[in-house]
Write a structure and sequence with these properties.
CATH class of the domain at 60-132: Alpha Beta
Helix content: 25-40%
Shape: elongated
Strand content: 15-25%
Distance between the termini: 100 Å
Strand order of the largest sheet: 3-2-1-4-5
CATH architecture of the domain at 60-132: 2-Layer Sandwich
Number of helices: 3
CATH topology of the domain at 60-132: Nucleotidyltransferase, domain 5
């Protein structure tokens, strides 16, 4: 008993075009009815400070090291007899300031040990802020 013998069977079909139309209408409705908050409209009272800016600059002490191993502290040549004497010269150049910046300017041909001596002297003097000067090649 096959009652459907002569009938042609149609496959079900999903049509997406009405679905897209409905989604667009919903999107337009949401965009039209949504209120957006603006952060520029917030009333914020920020704290203020009345302190003056400090204009004092940290003391800089330059240690110069020549290619021959001669030292200068603050532009004055010194006789290097040891790390302890160099540390004493650094303390004299600091004039009682606790944390001066020690700038080490060494010649490119100066020995590595000369630079290490300057760093050790700064450590013995109690100065931890070290920096090195460099020269960029001329093009």
């Amino acid at each position: 008993m096959n009652f459907r013998r002569g009938r042609h069977r149609e496959e079900p079909e999903i049509n997406f075009i009405p679905l897209i139309d409905v989604m667009l209408v919903i999107l337009i409705f949401v965009m039209a009815t949504t209120t957006y908050s603006k952060f520029a409209e917030l009333q914020i009272n920020l704290p203020t400070a009345d302190a003056e800016k400090s204009t004092s600059k940290a003391l800089e002490i330059e240690i110069g090291i020549s290619a021959a191993g001669q030292y200068s502290v603050g532009g004055q040549k010194i006789n290097f007899t040891g790390v302890d004497n160099l540390a004493a010269d650094l303390l004299r150049a600091a004039k009682g300031q606790k944390e001066p910046v020690i700038i080490i300017s060494a010649d490119g041909n100066a020995s590595h040990q000369s630079v290490v001596n300057a760093m050790t002297a700064a450590e013995k003097a109690g100065f931890g802020r070290l920096t090195f000067t460099i020269q960029t090649p001329q093009s």
